[in-house]
Every structure is written in structure tokens, then in C-alpha cells.
Amino acid sequence: MIKEQITKKTQGYFLNAVCLGIALLAANGEINAADNIDEQVALAKADREYTFSEVVTESVAGDVYADPSKWQDLSYSNMFSEGWDKPWASPPAGGGGAPRQGWLNAYEGVFYRLGISVFGWQHDLAGAADGYSGSLTVFTPLNQRFEVQTDIPMAVSNRRPNDEARETNFGDFQIIPRFILSESRDVTQTFNITFRTPTGVSENLGQNIAAVTPNYQFWANWWQGFVVRGGAGFFIPYAGDLNRSGARSTFNANLAAGYYFTPHDFTPIGDMVWYLSTNLNQTIATTAARAGLW
Predict the structure, then answer these.
(1) Is the dihedral of CA 153, 157, 158, 159 positive or negative?
(2) DSSP class of 74
(3) Residue ranges in 48-128 assigned as alpha helix (H)
(4) Full-model pTM
């Protein structure tokens, strides 16, 4: 009798173990199936074909942060074939974990979708009184390769060259097509062309100038929170009040390096970065007559 009870208990344990094994296999199968479905959905999204209007609409107004799988590496080799037909998606943090953010007095090097209002002050501008400015800069990505930056100088205020009176007016409007040459998690490289229009008045120092400024920019983060960014290009004025403004063709370069000391969610000082930025401006035309023909 005792032997039969032991045998029945053993059989019961064995059946329970078998059932548990089957349940675990089924659950594992469901997990693998779910993983496969997620991978298939991600691949389907990456391979999806968009119309031109869908690309622009999602880039400008879509949730560019919700689906990281929409972002992809871009390279020089596929410059003319990849990224033009896909909506822009916010890229991930760099290889060291640093965010792709803008710094004052430093080249961008990356794409954004945002608007920034900036107040500027220049002490003893051109040997005269202090100069002030208020502007709105808007970054509008249209696809993964191309975005448009607009600089709207809402107010420029400084002392007029001929007397002591202060002049306050709208400044020179700028529109900047920007192209991604290559982008990986660690490095982004862009080519940008600034078209400056002489919408300001010549009574404001440094305004009423038409110019074109092609330049190359980069952003890199390989190690922890350390970021290096910069670039180089040319400022080429060709019309407007070149004599009074003193505008000349120049070679311009920027190099900035900084370190992020806090993570993004470290409230209230998340993404605290200390950086040093240096700029070079070298005149390459000595007279106003040659300013646009260097």
C-alpha cells in the first residue's frame, strides 16, 4: 500500500514536471514569437515607402522621438540614395552617451527640430556704443538628409556711424539649407550654405549686406561625456552697403570641446556641460571693391 502511494506521488510529480516544462517551452515560444514580431515591425517600418508629403509632414510635425528604429546610419557613399525618402528621426546619444545639443558660440554640426530665441550683446561695437540684438532661429528638418535653418533678426540696435543717435531696426534675414554628409552614432558631418539678404538698414553697423557662406561642420562623441564640434568655411559678401559696413570676404573656423557632467534626468541640472569654444576669422580680401571677388 505504501509502495503504491509512493509510486502515485512520483507519477504525480513527474506529470507536474512535464506540464511545467511544456508551459515553459510555450512561454519561451511566445517570447521568441513576440521578439520576432517586434523585429518584423521594426524592419517593416524601416523598409516602408513614404510619399514626398508624408516624409515632409512626419519630419516637421511627427513624433520624431517615439520610434528610434526610424533613425539610420548615413554615409558619403550613399549620399544621393539614402535618407532623402525617409522622415527625419531624432538620432540617439553619441557613443559616449552625450546628447546632440546646441552650444552658444559654437557650430551646430547636427540636425535639430526646434526654435530658439536669442538675445545678443556686444560691448563697444566697432569702437562705438554697445550693440544689442534679438533674433529667432528655427531648424526645420524635411527628411533625414536635408533641413532648412532660418535666422530672423527681429531687432538690431546700435549707434549710427555718423552721429550719436541709436538706430534700432530689423536686421539681415538669413536662410540656410543644411545637408547631412554622414551620420553615425558617434559622428555627424554636415554641409551648409548660408544665404544672407540685405533686409537691414545701413544705419545699423554690419547690416544691409548680401552674402553667401558655405561651410563644413562636424559633431563627435566617442568617449563618455566628451564632445568635440566645429568646422570651417567662407563668408563672401557680394552686394549691399559693403563700404560703410566694412564687410570683407573672410575665412571662418570654429573648434569647441566640452564635457557633460550630469545625465539628462539629473533634475534640475541635467545635461550640465562645460565647454570652451574658439573662433577664427581671417580676412582674405583687403578692399570693399574686392569683397565679393576674392
Answers:
(1) positive
(2) B
(3) 52-61
(4) 0.79
